[in-house]
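Quick start: read one record
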Amino acid sequence: MVAVAGCKKQDEKKAEQAASPQGQGPTKKESVVAVPESVKGKWKAVKIAVTDKTVNKESVYTVTIGSEFTIPDSNLAIKVETFLPHFTMDGTTLTSQSNEPKNPAAQIRIMEGGKEVFKGWLFSLYPTTHAFNHPKYGFTLVDFVPAS
């Protein structure tokens, strides 16, 4: 049994990869995000469109990968964890087949009033796939910014 608490992301990945899925019972296997060397450091930020459904107004915000951004006039904050330009899933491993933006996806966390209300992915080609259904706001990955 491997316990992961308070570790760095890389240590979590190693621990999850080392954990054997056998004998764990009916618990859901955690997905592991593996960013290939060909992708690391090549992308600086993503652009996320936030739609206020009550007034049907869309604003696009550029959020640096690894940072958190508070949406103006709201109690919501978006953190962009990872960007994979050619998202693919191999079992429980989420990775990028290449550095070409063929299926761009951003792993995000949305906090509301300091509490995490969503952790998942935004896909630019499939905006409704696994979309976060918030009563007031909609979120879409609209663009990505390469590192200079």
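Helices lie at 9-18.
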